[in-house]
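Dear colleagues,

For the upcoming journal club I promised to circulate an example of a predicted protein-ligand complex. I picked one with S-adenosylmethionine because it came up in last month's discussion. The inputs are reproduced below in full, followed by the predicted structure.
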Amino acid sequence: MSYTELRIRLVNELVREGILRTPEIIDAFRKVPRELFVDESYRDLAYVDSPLPIGFGQTISAPHMIALMMEELRPARGDKVLEVGTGSGYQTALLAEVVKPEGHVYSIEIIPELAERAQRRIAEAGYSNYVTISVGDGSKGLSAHAPYNKIIVSAASPRIPEPLIQQLEPGGRMVIPVGPPHMQVLKVVIKEEDGMVRVRDSVACVFVPLRGKYGWRV
Ligand code: SAM
């Protein structure tokens, strides 16, 4: 089977399971080639629904987990999105596919080598115009481009970092895994138009730790 056939088969499975529901997000999953974002030695596993190593002790998240987070985040065309934890850049590309052409994804990664690799892959996949990747501690957010319509954190945090709440626009949403290293809950944070913040628990999940000022000291 070709990568495209494997991709369509996986997307159909995620739709059948009810994990992928929104047409724009389904379309992004159909278009973005996950095989481009995994190391060559893992390409044959690109469409197995599982996390894969990307070096430096980090992983590209499993497709069903990225799908769940995207559905909870509800990105839309024109959104300005902050992604904390670029990793491979795969989720960055999915977000770019949904928000383009008017929207933009600002992604921040703490490991310079991963940020550089992700940047190359984003260019190869054709999303450079809609993505800006920077290197730094995303637990503090990225104030230079705030506020954001959506914020997505792809690493486990001990609590919801206050700067991220501040950098969320009224009417905005954030998804973030919160909890100790081996088991977290995906939290959905909704900032109402009047600035009031509501937090809802979504699913149990396991992510690598968020490092930095508002993360874990690892
Ligand atoms: N969604 C990503 C993908 O599609 O490949 C996977 C992200 S991976 C599970 C989590 C990433 O968060 C790692 O690359 C890690 O280096 C990064 N990270 C951890 N703490 C961070 C911080 N404080 N700021 C920015 N990135 C951080």
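Two points we might discuss: Residues 58-61, 84-85, 87-88, 90-91, 108-111, 114, 137-139, 154-155, 207-208, 210-212, 215 surround S-adenosylmethionine (CB under 6 Å). The mean pLDDT is 97.

See you all on Thursday,
B. R.
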